[in-house]
Amino acid sequence: MEFKRSPCPVANTLELVGDKWTLLVIRDLLRGKRTYGELLDSPERIPTNILAERLKRLERAGLITSAAYQERPVRYAYTLTPGGESLRAVLKAFARWGEEHIPGTRSLAAPARQTKSPATR
C-alpha cells in the first residue's frame, strides 16, 4: 500500500479523520443523527459543501454507509459501519481530555435516540 507521508498509523489516521470537521460528523452520527439536515444542524455550523465532501470521504473509507430513504428528491440516511462505530472510544478520549485540560469545555447533551426512520417522519 502507498502512504501519503509514512506507514505511521497516527499519520494515516490523521489523514483520514484529522481535519477540523470529520470527527464532529462522526460524533453526531454516534449521537443518533442520520440525515444530511440533522448533521447540518449542529452547533459548529459545518458549511454545506464541506459536510457533503466529508460524507463522501467517510463512505469511501468504509466508515459510513448511505441508503436512500426518499426518491424525489433523493435523500440519504447515513449509518456508521463497525469501523466508524469503533471511533467512539477515540471521541470519548478526546472529550475526556478536553474536559480535563481546556477550561470551560463540557460535553454536549446527547439527543434522544430516534425510533422512527427518516422515511416515516
Beta-strand proportion? 5-15%
Distance between the termini: 44 Å
Helix proportion of residues, in percent? Answer: 40-55%
Number of helices: 6
Strand order of the largest sheet: 1-2
Please trace the helix and strand order, writing H or E for each element.
HHHHEEHH
| Count of folded domains | 1
Rg calculated over all Cα atoms: 15 Å
Taken from the alpha-carbon principal axes, the silhouette is globular
Could you list the spans in which at least 5 consecutive residues all have pLDDT below 50?
112-117
Quick synopsis:
By secondary structure, the chain is mainly alpha-helical.
Description:
The longest helix has 14 residues, at about 90-100. The protein has one domain (about 10-100): Winged helix-like DNA-binding domain superfamily/Winged helix DNA-binding domain (Arc Repressor Mutant, subunit A), CATH 1.10.10. The protein starts with 8 loop residues before the first helix and ends in a 20-residue tail after the last helix. The protein has six helices and two strands; from the N terminus they run ααααββαα. The radius of gyration is 15 Å and the shape is globular. It has about 120 residues and is mostly helical.
SSE blueprint:
Elements: H1 9-17, H2 22-30, H3 36-40, H4 48-60, E1 64-70, E2 75-80, H5 82-85, H6 88-101
Antiparallel strand pairs: 1-2
Keywords:
121 residues, mainly alpha, Arc Repressor Mutant, subunit A, two-stranded antiparallel sheet, 6 helices
